[in-house]
Every structure is written in structure tokens, then in C-alpha cells.
Amino acid sequence: MKKVFLSLTLVFLWGISIKAQDKKIEYDFTVDASPSDVYKAWSTTDGIKTFFAPDGKVDLKMFGDYQIYFFPETECLF
Question: pTM of the prediction?
Fold first, then answer.
């Protein structure tokens, strides 16, 4: 049963990847900030809280955490 489930999952994901190649969304914009400020905004926990989500965790190192909590007050069910 596990082999069948895995096969169906791979076929499903492969189908998505084909469709994703045909379509893409691009959006360019200019930010009124210095490169240093933009780097801090994306690479620190306090930075992502200023524009991305109410909470998160950024551990800026190789294989470090980059977690964004969109609903930090919500209890995790799993």
C-alpha cells in the first residue's frame, strides 16, 4: 500500500511541476531603503516582524531556523 501511495504522490507532484513551468508570476518593485536595512529586515527576527508577520525566528547560520509565524496566537494541533 505504501508503494502505491508514493507512486501516486510522485505522479501528482510531477503534474504540478509541469503546470508550474507554463505559468509564473513576476513582480518588480523598488524599496526606499538602503541595502543594509533590507538585509536586516530579511535576516533578523526583529526585521521580519516589521513587514512580514507578527512573529518568527531567524537563526542566521547554515541550516539555521527561518520560521515565520503568521498566527502566533493560534495553538498548533499536530
Answer: 0.56
